[in-house]
Amino acid sequence: MTTMNKFHWFWAWDDEKEESWLREMSRNGWHFNSVTFPGNYLFEQGEPQDYVYRLDYFTNRKEMDSYLQIFQDAGWDYLGKMNGWQYFRQIAVTGEDQEIYTDNQSKQKKYQRIMLYLAIFLPIFLNSIITVNRGASSGLIQVMGFLMGLLLLLYVYGMVRLLHRILQLRRIV
């Protein structure tokens, strides 16, 4: 069987674009097989097929079996995970809007789970930056502190974009 590795990055607030990209890959005969961090996808070549892909963010290991059962009962195939992102697919049905969440409140909760995860690790990240910058006497440590500061800006930007996505979904309700 022919396989292809492909790197593809997506941001948490753009998961719908990622779903569309996976669907287009299947339409071109490249079917999702697995993904590893940071966005290294493995595809298997086959007959072109119109699959609908959906991503969800779920990290509760204790409830994983019942969580996956809900999707299986609804006809979704579980494909795997990457850092809390769960990948599902179904064969597309013409004229049907195939979603894993039927309401915007549930979609909001997905982004809120990601925000919670980021909020939990923000103090740890900030502490790391402060620790590095305290000992910033050498040039290398100063550069490291600067790079960590840039990562912090990206981190905060991501939290703002997720908040924007949540507010956007609230307006649709």
Summed up, what is this model?
The protein is an alpha+beta fold. The chain has helices at residues 15-27, 64-73, 104-134, 139-172; strands at residues 3-7, 30-36, 40-45, 51-57, 77-82, 85-91.
Structure overview:
- The structure is a single chain.
- This protein has four helices and six strands, in the order βαβββαββαα.
- It is α+β, with helices and mostly antiparallel strands.
- It has two domains: 3-91, no CATH class; 104-172.
- The strands form two sheets. Strands 1-3-2 form a three-stranded antiparallel β-sheet.
- The longest helix has 34 residues, at 139-172.
- The termini are far apart.
- The model has no long low-confidence stretch (mean pLDDT 90).
Q: What fraction, in percent, of the residue positions are helical? A: 40-55%
Q: Which structural class do the helices and strands define?
A: alpha+beta
Rounded average pLDDT: 90
As a percent range, the share of strand residues is 15-25%
User: What is the β-strand count?
Assistant: 6
Rg from alpha-carbon coordinates: 19 Å
**Cross-sheet strand order for the largest sheet:** 1-3-2
Unreliably modeled segments: none
Q: Could you name the key traits of this structure?
A:
single chain, three-stranded antiparallel beta sheet, 4 helices, globular
Secondary structure layout:
Blueprint: E1 3-7, H1 15-27, E2 30-36, E3 40-45, E4 51-57, H2 64-73, E5 77-82, E6 85-91, H3 104-134, H4 139-172
Antiparallel strand pairs: 1-3, 2-3, 4-6, 5-6
